[in-house]
Known about the structure:
Layout: H1 2-5, H2 10-34, H3 42-66, E1 69-73, H4 84-94, E2 99-102, H5 107-121, E3 142-153, E4 157-169, E5 177-179, E6 183-190, H6 191-196, H7 205-229, H8 231-239, H9 243-264, H10 271-297
Parallel strand pairs: 1-2, 1-3
Antiparallel strand pairs: 3-4, 4-5, 4-6
Helix pairs in contact: 3-4, 7-9, 7-10, 9-10
Amino acid sequence: MALMDNIPGWKVFSAGIGLAALALVGYFAYVWFVQGPDDLKELQDHAVADALDQLSEKYKAKVREEGEQRVVVMPVRNDTSNGQIRDMLIGRLNDIEGVKADVPRDPTLEERATTLVKSLVNKEDEQPDPNKVFENAGEADEVLSVSVDKLWSGADSGICSLDVIRIVRSSGIERKASTLPMERIKGLSGTAKADDEPVDEGPGFWSAVGGFLWRLIVVLAATAILPFLSWPAAKAAFKQDSNGLNAALLFVLTGLDVLVLFLLVAFEFSTTAIVCAGLLVPVALIWNLRMLNFIEEH
């Protein structure tokens, strides 16, 4: 080693190897002991998240009604994601204020809960007593068992169906336990979620026709009336005997007609509004010119 130390740059090189080895060990330690599973595809992950969002709403409502809830989360049955769905479920529940979710700390609780869930799924005539599930977990308010019914993703969409069984305890003094009916929750992602949402198709045909007609009547009425409302200003302009002033008055009246049109559509510069404004301009120019001549003659 003393010989190696005499090689220029060896100490720096060996220190770099040591740091790289430490970084590699740290990386594997993080992957094996800290980082959670990440086996789901992106669209599957989004579909699972959508299903868990729906399940979370039920616990938010329960917290509002009964206060803080301690939930024991059983292993997710039929899960092929290396436990990722369970991790997501526990994390989602713990994000709810008033909910404390954890894995079963007592193996006997998990065993009894599994036996009860299997009897419910298989619809056996004799079912274990739900109260026995909580014998060694008196602080727990609920045992949650989730099973994956369907987990699929394609090129642009994903689906996740979860069967949920909840073993709950009442909030009374005796705290009797019971099982709620199995519920299926369906989560969607990608185009499947977009297609499932209600689409705003806008107003119906007759509603659109009615809206167009009453706006047309108002615009035509304003075009007809505005020259008469401008009678004093028109008489004052005619006394000046100025062609420029007369032309300005004509264009101001026409501009007011167009302004009324855009006021009625809340200044929405749609194709329909612009086309109607283009048709209105020559009509308004002709009408306003005739009315100004009429005012000048009288």
